[in-house]
Specification:
Keywords: Cell inner membrane, Cell membrane, Membrane, Transmembrane, Transmembrane helix. It comes from Aliidiomarina soli. This is Paraquat-inducible protein A. InterPro entries: PqiA-like, PqiA-like_proteobact, PqiA-PqiB_transport. The chain has 15 helices and 13 strands. The chain is of the alpha+beta class. Helix 2 packs across helix 12, helix 10 packs across helix 11 and helix 10 crosses helix 13. It is 55% helix and 12% strand. The chain is globular and about 75 Å long. The mean pLDDT is 89. The longest helix is centred in the first third of the chain and has 30 residues. It has one domain. The strands form five sheets. It has a four-stranded antiparallel β-sheet. Strands 6-5-7 form a three-stranded antiparallel β-sheet. A two-stranded antiparallel sheet has the order 1-2. It binds zinc ion (ZN) (2 copies). One zinc ion binds next to loops.
C-alpha cells in the first residue's frame, strides 16, 4: 500500500507514489513539495555535512578580518563578532549571534552526521531519533548565509573609512556557508525518517484526497507520519502532535503585537554610535540607510532599507492581515493568501542583516579616540523584532487558510464528542 501523508501546508492527505532518484512528489492542491528522492542521499548529505564541519573548524583559529587606521590596527577572529556585544553590555545579543551563526549550525551538522551515519551503516544508534527531530527544529534558526551578506555589507561600509583586510577564516567561512546550504537543501526529512525508523504500521486507512483533520488524523510536524488525534504524540518520533485551534492565532497575534511595539524603539534609538576625533555620531536604522545613499553606496542602502524596514513591516502587516481575514472568504483567493504567507516566511530571517553588520563593525572598529564604534539600544530591540516575527510565523497555522474551521477546533471538545 502506498504511504499516506498529510500536506504540511494544506492538510490534504496524499498517497505518496514510489519515486525514482531525481523525482519529487508535490501536493496536488497547494503544490508544496512533499518529498524528493536524491541519488545516494545518505552519502551525499554525509559528504556535505562532514566538509562543512571541517570548514567550521577552520573558521575559528585564524584572523577573520583586520583593519588599520592611522597607525592603529585591529585584528579579529570570527568569535569576536559575537563577544563584541557582551563587552558592550548586551549579552543577549552575543548569545543570539553565537547561536545562529556558530552553535546551532555546529549542532545541526553534528546531528546530521550522526543520524546519516546510522542510516548509511543501517544501524540503530542511541539518541538518533532525538537528533533527527533536532534537525527539523534547528533548521529555521540557521543564519550563516545572512551573516555572510552582513559581512559583505560591512565591507562596503568600511571601504572609505579604513584599510580592511580579509583573513584566512573569512574564506573558510565562505566555504562553510556554501557547504551548510548544500547540506540543508539535500536533506529530505521524509527519506531520512523512513530510512531511520521505517514506516509505523497504520491501524487504519487514511483516505487520500480528503483532509486529515476531518478523518480524525494529524500529520507529525517533525517526521510527517499520520497519527490519530487522540494519540497526542507521534508514534514514530514521539514528538507532541501540534493541534489546530484558537491558541495558534492568539499566539501569532500576541507575538506580532510585541514585535510592533519593539519596532518603535528599534527605529527611534540609535543602532550604532560612532566615536571619532570630531565627536560622537549616533545613527538610527533609517539614518544609516540615508548615510549610505549620500556616500553613493546605493546597493548597500537598498539592502539595509529592504532588510530592516520593508521586511519587518511586511511581515507584521501580512501575518496580522491573514489572522484577521482567515474566517472571511474575501478579499483574495486562498492561493494568493498562501503565496503571501510563503513570501513572509521565506524572507523573515534576512532582516537580521543589520544586526550582524553592527556586530561586525563593533568588533572590528576599535581604534580608541581615532575611530570606535559601539552598539546602540536599537540593535537589541531590532533583533527581538526579528526573532518575535519568526516565532509568529511558526505559530501561524497555514492549513487554516484552506480550512477556516480549524481556528475553532478544540481537542478536548473533539474527544468529548467521541467519548474518548
Ligand atoms: Zn498541500
Ligand atoms: Zn513524528
Amino acid at each position: 500500500m502506498k504511504r499516506r501523508r498529510a500536506c504540511p501546508e494544506c492538510d490534504l492527505v496524499v498517497a505518496l507514489p514510489a519515486l525514482k532518484a531525481g523525482q519529487a512528489a508535490n501536493c496536488p492542491r497547494c503544490k508544496r513539495e512533499l518529498t524528493y528522492r536524491a541519488h545516494a542521499p545518505a552519502e551525499r548529505v554525509l559528504a556535505y555535512a562532514l566538509s562543512a564541519l571541517i570548514m567550521l573548524a577552520f573558521t575559528m583559529p585564524f584572523s577573520f578580518m583586520s583593519f588599520a587606521l592611522g597607525g592603529q590596527a585591529q585584528d579579529i577572529v570570527l568569535l569576536d563578532t559575537a563577544t563584541a556585544f557582551r563587552s558592550n553590555d548586551w549579552p543577549l545579543l552575543s548569545i543570539l549571534i553565537a547561536a545562529t551563526v556558530l552553535v546551532l549550525p555546529g549542532l545541526y551538522l553534528i546531528a546530521v552526521v550522526y543520524v546519516y551515519s546510522a542510516v548509511a551503516l543501517r544501524q540503530y544508534w542511541m539518541g538518533a531519533i532525538w537528533l533527527a527531530r533536532a534537525i527539523s527544529s534547528i533548521k529555521p534558526w540557521l543564519m550563516t548565509d545572512v551573516f555572510l551578506v552582513g559581512v559583505l555589507v560591512s565591507l562596503v561600509k568600511l571601504l572609505g573609512m579604513a584599510d580592511i583586510q580579509l583573513g584566512m577564516s573569512f574564506w573558510a567561512f565562505c566555504g562553510y556557508v556554501i557547504l551548510l546550504v548544500k547540506t540543508v537543501s539535500n536533506i529530505d526529512t521524509d527519506w531520512m525518517w523512513f530510512a531511520l525508523r521505517h514506516e509505523a504500521k497504520t491501524p487504519y486507512v487514511a483516505k487520500a484526497g480528503v483532509d486529515a483533520l476531518s478523518q480524525g488524523l494529524v500529520g507529525c510536524d517533525s517526521c510527517g507520519l499520520l497519527n490519530r488525534i487522540e494519540q497526542g504524540h507521534c508514534r514514530r518520533c514521539f514528538r507532541k502532535l501540534r493541534m489546530p485551534g484558537r491558541h495558534r492565532i492568539e499566539w501569532c497575534l500576541a507575538l506580532l503585537l510585541t514585535a510592533s511595539i519593539l519596532y518603535i524603539p528599534a527605529n527611534l534609538y540609535p543602532m550604532m554610535r560612532t566615536v571619532t576625533v570630531g565627536g560622537t555620531v549616533d545613527s538610527t536604522i533609517i539614518g544609516g540607510v540615508w548615510q549610505m545613499a549620500e556616500m553613493g553606496s546605493y546597493l548597500v542602502a537598498a539592502i539595509i532599507f529592504f532588510a530592516s524596514i520593508i521586511i519587518p513591516i511586511a511581515k507584521i502587516a501580512v501575518l496580522s492581515w491573514l489572522c484577521f481575514v482567515i474566517r472571511r472568504p474575501q478579499p483574495l483567493s486562498v492561493e494568493r493568501r498562501v503565496y503571501w504567507y510563503r513570501v513572509v516566511e521565506f524572507i523573515g530571517r534576512w532582516s537580521m542583516i543589520d544586526v550582524f553588520v553592527v556586530a561586525i563593525m563593533v568588533a572590528l572598529i576599535q581604534a580608541g579616540a581615532l575611530l570606535s564604534i559601539y552598539p546602540g539600544p536599537a540593535a537589541m530591540a531590532f533583533a527581538a523584532v526579528v526573532v518575535l516575527t519568526m516565532l509568529a510565523a511558526m505559530a501561524f497555522d497555514p492549513k487554516a487558510l484552506w480550512h477556516p474551521e480549524r481556528v475553532r477546533f478544540d481537542v478536548q471538545e473533539w474527544k468529548h464528542e467521541r467519548h474518548l
